[in-house]
Amino acid sequence: MDQFDLEDREYVELKNLLKLMGLCESGGEAMAVIAAGRVKVDGSVELRKRCKIRTGQAVEFEGHKVVVK
Description:
The chain is of the alpha+beta class. The protein is built from 2 helices and 7 strands; from the N terminus they run E-E-H-H-E-E-E-E-E. Strands 1-7-6-3-4 form a 5-stranded mixed sheet, with no helix packed on it. A two-stranded antiparallel ribbon has the order 2-5. Helix 1 crosses helix 2.
């Protein structure tokens, strides 16, 4: 399980989180895997590319789990 620190931000967009964590090589790839239903937020499939991920939420993709702090 990995952690992502929001630092002074209120949230991070789902597509950006996948890119920042190195789970996708580009924003385009991130948007494609989200649209294909391959990403879960808090255990449920999330199809919104710009979904706001906030402190305490968990994102799962291809065996990776990222918890936002």
